[in-house]
Amino acid sequence: MAHSTQGIATHESKTVTRVFITIALGYLLLFLGLPLFAVFYQALSKGWDLYYAALLEPDAWSAIKLTFIAAAIAVPCNLVFGIAAAWSIAKFDFKGKSMLITLIDLPFAVSPVVSGLVYVLLFGAQGWFGPWLQEHDLKLIFAVPGIVLATIFVTFPFIARELIPLMQAQGKDEEEAAVSLGASGWQTFSRVTLPNIKWGLLYGVILCNARAMGEFGAVSVVSGHIRGMTNTMPLHVEILYNEYNFVAAFTIASLLALLALVTLLVKSVVEWQAIRSGAAIRSLI
pTM of the entire structure? Predict the structure, then answer.
C-alpha cells in the first residue's frame, strides 16, 4: 500500500510540474516572445534596405550615440558609488547606516518621471540653481548633462544592491587577516575583496547598463525632446511612432530589443561562470 501511495504522489508531482512549466512557457511566449517577434517583424517588413536606412538616419544615429554616451558615463559613476557604498555598509558600523540603505533604494520607490521633474526644479531656468547656471553659461536641463544626471539617478542602486548582500555574507574576516599581515587598504581591496565580489560586481554592471540604455521616464522630462541633440533611443522611438513612421520606430525598437537580448545572454554567461567558480572552490575544499 505504501508503494502504491508513493507511486501516485510521484505521478501527481510530475503532472503538477508539467502543468506549471506549460503555464510559465505559455506566459513567456504570449507576453515576451510574441511582442519581440512583432518588433523584429515590423522592423524588417519593408526589407533590409529601409532597416539600414532607418538606423543610419542622422537623428536616429544621434539618438543611438547619446544612449551609449549616457550609459558610458552613468555606469562607471555608479560602479564607483556602488563599491564604496557596499563596502561601507557591509564592512563598517556607523551612524546613519540605515538611512544610507534607505536612500540607495529611493530610485526604486520614486517614479522616474518624478526624479526627472526634481532635476528640472533644481537646475531648470526657473529652478533653484537656474539663474546661477545661466549667469555662468551652463546648461544642464534640455541638454546632455541633464540626461546623464537623470540616468545616473535611476540606475545608481543596481550595483550597490547587488554587492551589499554579497559582501555581508562574506563577512570581513579575510580583510582583517590581510590587514593584520601588513597589507595596505588598496592591497586588501584589490587582492582580497575584489576577487571575492567580481561576479556580483559584473552582474550589477550588466543590470545597470541595461537600465541606463532603456530609461525613458526621467530622461523624457529633462531632455526637451530636441531631435538630433537630446533624444535617446527610447525617446526617438516615441517620436517616430507618433509621426506614424512605424518602420523606423520599430527599427530603433528592435535595436533596443537586441541590446536587451545581448544583455541577458551576457548575464546568463556571468551566472554560469559564477556557479562554475563556486563549484570549483567547493570541490577543492
Answer: 0.84
